[in-house]
Design brief:
alpha/beta; Alkaline Phosphatase, subunit A; about 20% strand
C-alpha cells in the first residue's frame, strides 16, 4: 500500500459574492477530487489547536501527524533547517520577507503593499538580501538568503519573546502599530528601517519599478522560533516517507521528520508553479523505496493572500488534473494499491486575505475499499457528513492505520 497526503495549502474558503456565493472549491472543475470524496470518507478537522495562531507551520505539523502542543517551536527554524543553516540550541531564527511598502517618508506611515514583492524571483532576491546582509549583518545577527521573498535572520545566543506581525496579515493596511515589539523589538525595527534605506534605490528595484513591478524595498520580520526536535516519521508511523514541495517551511518539516526531500525543478511555492513537476516527483518517489509521500502545494494559499479568485480556481483545477489524476493513473498502471488523504492545512478566505482557524474539509480514500461519500468535495459537503476530528494531528494515525 502506498500512502499519499495531498495538502492544498489554504484551499478552503468562504462563499464569494462574485462567484454567486460559492467558494472556489465549489466552482472549480475537479473530477478527481470529487471522485475521491464520493468513494471515500469525508469530514472536517481542526488543524489549529485552541489558542494557537492559524499559521501554516502549526497546521502542516498537525496534518503530518505531530501534536503542535508538543512539537511546535516556531516557523523560521524549520525554514532555517531547509536552507542548511546550522542553528545552535540557544539561537533563534526569524522569517524575513522582502516586501513592498509605500513611499511615505515616515516608516510608520507606510502601508504594506505586497508581502511578496510580486513573488520576486530568487535571483533578484538573492542580490538584494546579500546587499542588505553585507551592510547590516553583525557577529550575533545574520541574514541568510532563501527562495523568492522568503529569507531568514538568525540571532545567536538569544531568547524568544519578540512580538512580530506576519506581513500577509496586514496587506493593504498601515504598518503603524505592527512593527516589532518586545525583547528585540527596537533592534529588529532598526534593521527593517535601515534595510529600506538600502533597498529603495537599489538597481534591482529601480529596474523592477521601470517594468511596472513592485520593488522589494524592505525587510519584514516575523515567525520567530528555536531549533525543532521531531521524532522520525518512520519511527512514529512505520512508513518510509518523502516530501514534495517548494517552500522551505515544509522542506524543513520533512528534513526534521527524517524524510526524503528532493528538489523539484519548476516548483516555485508561488501562485503559478509547475504542478505537473510535483506530480512526476511524487510518483518517482513512490516507485522507489518510499511508502508515504506528503505533497504540499502552496498556490491556493498564495492566491488567497493576493485576493485572486480566478488564480485560486485555476490552482485547484491544476492540482486535480496534474497531480491527483496523474498519480492515480500512474499507480493504477503500476498495479499499486494506494490510499490518499486530501485536505487543506487551513482556509485562506479571499474576503480576509489571510488564514482562518475554521475547520478544514478532508477526504480519506482507499482504492481497495468501497465507501459512499458525498457526490462532490467541498467545504459544505464535508461538513454535512457530520464527521469531525477535533484534534487534527490524529488524522494521520487513522490514515496510516487504514482506520477509516
Amino acid at each position: 500500500m502506498k500512502y499519499i497526503v495531498l495538502l492544498c495549502d489554504g484551499m478552503a474558503d468562504r462563499p464569494i459574492p462574485e462567484l454567486g456565493n460559492k467558494t472556489p472549491m465549489e466552482v472549480a472543475h475537479k473530477p478527481h477530487m470529487d471522485a475521491l470524496a464520493n468513494g471515500g470518507v469525508c469530514g472536517t478537522a481542526r488543524t489549529i489547536p485552541e489558542g494557537m495562531h492559524p499559521q501554516s507551520d502549526i497546521a502542516n505539523l498537525a496534518v503530518m501527524g505531530y501534536d503542535p502542543a508538543i512539537y511546535y517551536r516556531g516557523r523560521s527554524p524549520l525554514e532555517a533547517v531547509s536552507m542548511g543553516i546550522d542553528l545552535g540550541p540557544d539561537d533563534i531564527a526569524i522569517r524575513c520577507n522582502i516586501s513592498t511598502v509605500s513611499d511615505e517618508e515616515d516608516y510608520n506611515d507606510k502601508t504594506m503593499i505586497d508581502y511578496s514583492s510580486d513573488e520576486i524571483s530568487t535571483e533578484e532576491a538573492k542580490e538584494l538580501v546579500e546587499y542588505v546582509a553585507q551592510h547590516l549583518n553583525t557577529d550575533d545577527m545574520r541574514l541568510y538568503t532563501g527562495i523568492s521573498y522568503r529569507h531568514c535572520l538568525v540571532i545567536k545566543d538569544a531568547q524568544v519573546g519578540t512580538d512580530l506581525t506576519p506581513p500577509h496579515d496586514i496587506t493593504g493596511k498601515p504598518v503603524r502599530g505592527c512593527l516589532p515589539k518586545g525583547r528585540y523589538g527596537e533592534r529588529l525595527t532598526k534593521f527593517m528601517l535601515d534595510s529600506h534605506e538600502l533597498l529603495k534605490n537599489h538597481p534591482v528595484n529601480l529596474a523592477r519599478i521601470a517594468k511596472g513591478e513592485n520593488p522589494a524595498n524592505t525587510c519584514w520580520f516575523w515567525g520567530e522560533g528555536t531549533k525543532p526536535a521531531l521524532s522520525p516519521f518512520e519511527e512514529l508511523y512505520g512508513l518510509k516517507g518523502g516530501v514534495v514541495c517548494a517552500v522551505d517551511l515544509i522542506k524543513g518539516l520533512g528534513i526534521c521528520a527524517g524524510m526524503k526531500v528532493p528538489f523539484v525543478e519548476g516548483a516555485t511555492g508561488a501562485k503559478r508553479t509547475d504542478f505537473a513537476a510535483k506530480g512526476r516527483a511524487a510518483l518517482e518517489l513512490l516507485k522507489s523505496d518510499v511508502d508515504f509521500v506528503y505533497i504540499h502545494v502552496e498556490a491556493p494559499d498564495e492566491s488567497g493572500h493576493a485576493g485572486d479568485v480566478q488564480c485560486k480556481i485555476d490552482a485547484i483545477e491544476a492540482i486535480d488534473k496534474d497531480i491527483l489524476g496523474y498519480l492515480q493513473d500512474g499507480l493504477s498502471a503500476a498495479g499499486e494499491n494506494y490510499a490518499i488523504m486530501l485536505l487543506p492545512d487551513h482556509p485562506t478566505p479571499i474576503e480576509i486575505r489571510t488564514h482562518s482557524t475554521d475547520p478544514v474539509p478532508f477526504v480519506l480514500y482507499r482504492c481497495d475499499a468501497e465507501r459512499q461519500g458525498p457526490a462532490v468535495y467541498t467545504e459544505a459537503s464535508a461538513a454535512a457528513c457530520g464527521l469531525h476530528v477535533e484534534e487534527g494531528y490524529t488524522l494521520m494515525k487513522k490514515f496510516t492505520g487504514l482506520d477509516f
